[in-house]
Amino acid sequence: MTEIAVMGSGSWGTAFAMVLADAGGDVTIWGREPETVTGINRDHMNERYHPGLVLHESIRATTKAAEALVKADIVVLAVPAQTLRENLSLWRSSLPPNAVVVSLMKGIEIGTSARMSQVIHQAGGVPNEQIAVVSGPNLAREIAQKQPAATTVACADESSARQLQDACTTDYFRPYWTTDVVGVEIGGSVKNVIALANGIAAGMGLGENSQASLITRGLAEMVRLGVALGADPLTFQGLAGVGDLIATCQSPLSRNRTFGTSLGRGLTFAEATEQMKQTCEGVKSARSIFQLACQHEVEMPITEQVVAVVHHGQPPIQMLANFMARAPRAEPGMPAR
């Protein structure tokens, strides 16, 4: 039986732990809050993030990171993206040397503009061929309810990607593997920023035409940045690209869309943050993504406007005006004139 440590007891970490247990894994969740750990061990429930849902009876939890990691064949990292480096500095000595280390995080590190796989390599000392990422249209609540879903698992080493694929395949969760780690991570990070923009549009009362236009042009931004970093453009046509983009932009379960909707309806940044009460990776990563785009001379006008609204106080209505005032150009695939 595959021994699996899930480092993080939040919404997605808990839901993915359920998938891994249903797939036959022996799963231990590490959590920071003693009350959450007690609830998982005693009641088989995580009431804070998934109230009313019963977890697989075999899942255990602990507040001791070393205890969760000691025999793990697979280590799943499910903490907020901006805390990963600090956590890995504490966990590095306990990471099993041959474990596949999996990122569930969809963000870019503030300050370094590093992808999560790069942070795992740098701060955790994990070889690239043992680092995998999971990304797709995987809203945690629906996965926890065992609604049918699919995802992408990526690792530079095909055998590790297939190992992870086997470890999370169930009758309701279907993973597809790839070796394009860069593409999967960029898709998972950029879609959060586009979802913020789409939420702002929805909050302002703009309809389906406006939102479809934002999503489509957001996909173009995602592809441009990914290709500049060495990703396969075909990755963005799949689950980790357009699939995740659609789910995150359109679902009321999406934290990023919800946060954007609050801003579009007139709430201040502080008011939207207080209302959310959970980590919103797009808010945290937007500036890092735009910085990465600038470093590689990639044009990302939607991302630029989201940064202006979220981090510089620009009114949402000005975002719309700035975007619509851009010079007309050819549709991708057409010769420039």
Short recap of the structure:
With 337 residues, this protein is an alpha/beta fold. Helix content is 50%, strand content 12%.
Question: Which labels suit this protein?
Answer:
single chain, alpha/beta, eight-stranded mixed sheet, 8 strands, globular
Structure report:
By secondary structure, the protein is an alpha/beta fold. The protein has 2 domains: 3-179, Rossmann fold; 187-324, N-(1-d-carboxylethyl)-l-norvaline Dehydrogenase, domain 2 (Orthogonal Bundle), CATH 1.10.1040.10. It is built from 15 helices and 8 strands. It has an 8-stranded mixed beta sheet with strand order 3-2-1-4-5-6-7-8, with helices on both faces. Strand 5, helix 5 (116-124) and strand 6 (131-135) form a beta-alpha-beta unit. Helix 8 runs parallel beside helix 10 (239-250).
The average pLDDT is 94
| Strand arrangement across the biggest beta sheet | 3-2-1-4-5-6-7-8
Share of residues in helices: 40-55%
CATH topology of the largest domain: Rossmann fold
**Over all CA atoms, what is the radius of gyration?**
19 Å
Subunit organisation of the chains: single chain
